[in-house]
Amino acid sequence: MKVLIGILICLIVGLGVYKIYEHWTQIQEQNSLEQKVEKGPNIDPRTLPGLPWQLDLKLTEAQQAGPEAFKRFVEQLRKYPDVKDPRLAWIELDYAVLISSSDPLKAKQIFYDVKKRTPTDSPIYPRIRQLSKTYD
């Protein structure tokens, strides 16, 4: 009888350990999924629609030239009818991040303008959600 009780106790303990392990793996998977959703998809901004290919080189040059040149370039982009969201919004967010240390109020204003006009199903919305931690 003692052997039977010992085997039964071992089975109950084994089942309990298995259930704890199963619960732990489920929580790990859920946390991993939440982190992936929080990061958003890995987006290459050059593939976003809304910027004619002729302006890609000018964009790169303006980004490398510094904040003032980038500001002038962004202001010129807004005048082009072919330049649209989501690429324009991505470029404006790049500019906001660039000037956030020197002019935080202007950076917040640019961020809120982009956030206001960007729908939640936009491909750049995960970046907006990520940056909102900084600008809110």
What percentage of residues falls in helices of 4 or more residues?
over 70%
- Count every beta strand, where a strand is a DSSP E run of 2 or more residues: 0
Radius of gyration: 25 Å
Number of DSSP helical runs: 6
Structural class: mainly alpha
Shape: rod-shaped
* Straight-line distance between termini: 67 Å
Beta-strand level of the residues, as a percent range?
under 5%
Element order: H for helix, E for strand: HHHHHH
Major sheet: size, sense and barrel closure? Answer: none
Mean pLDDT: 85
Low-confidence stretches: none
Tell me the number of structural domains: 2
Describe this structure in words.
By secondary structure, the protein is mainly alpha-helical. The chain folds into two domains: 1-39; 45-135. Helix content is 71%, strand content 0%. The chain has six helices and no strands. The protein has helices at residues 2-39, 56-65, 67-77, 87-99, 104-117, 125-135. The mean pLDDT is 85.
What keyword list fits this structure?
mainly alpha; 136 residues; 6 helices
Describe the structure concisely.
The protein has 136 residues and is mostly helical.
List the helices and strands and how they pair.
Elements: H1 2-39, H2 56-65, H3 67-77, H4 87-99, H5 104-117, H6 125-135
Helix pairs in contact: 2-3, 3-4, 4-5, 5-6
